Hints:
Blueprint: H1 7-13, H2 37-51, E1 57-62, H3 65-78, E2 83-89, H4 96-109, H5 113-120, H6 126-131, H7 144-164, E3 175-180, H8 181-184, E4 200-205, H9 211-214, H10 217-233
Parallel strand pairs: 1-2, 2-3, 3-4
Amino acid sequence: MELLIYGRMAQYLGREFPCYGLRARASDRKQQPHASSKEMATDYIREMRAIQPNGPYLLVGGCVGGIVAYEMAQQLLAQGQQVALLALLDTPRPTRARQFAFWWQQLRDRGLGERLGHLLGKSRSFAQKIASVSYLKQTPPKNEELKDMWHYEVLRTGYLRTLYRYRPRRYPGRITMLVNEVDARRHPDFGWRRLAAGGLTIYTVPGDHYSYIRDHAKDVAERLRDCLEKAATKK
């Protein structure tokens, strides 16, 4: 979805490491969004292998896109392919707590706290109550200028809901992480350490979650280039 924000970083990597980006399937408004992270990863692997049929593969995922990269690595290994690098950039491990926090934020953003309290006071099941929240069935605005913004927001929130539902299995290989210096002080591994059977390597990059790519793209690219070169040497 926000693929273009990584464009500057890709340029700094140079021709030695050409990058191929993958966007959410419904971005073109012609296809339906993926129903799950696993379906998303399967679809992306199909596209990737159309260009490079066999590994070793160098997978990099930014923010929640790292969740898709993680599942892609799992599926590629299950197919007997080699994943030389799995790099996660500021990627939080999806958990039930993060899923609930995201859901709650959506309610707060839409001012539905009172409505939620009313719903929770009824006798229907929790799933039915959540399904009845009206914001999940919003219709696009009539103003043409606002339709693009509406479509992007609906796609973004749906994409995040899908990814936060994912429950990652233990990964047999090594995971490399690039974490912004602000979050590195609080949770440098973003919860992935326990799932990295082959070990976890963490590099801290300047900036916060929003500025590390926007304002420090060159620094991030240099660190990522080091990771790519090391992985390429091990092929």
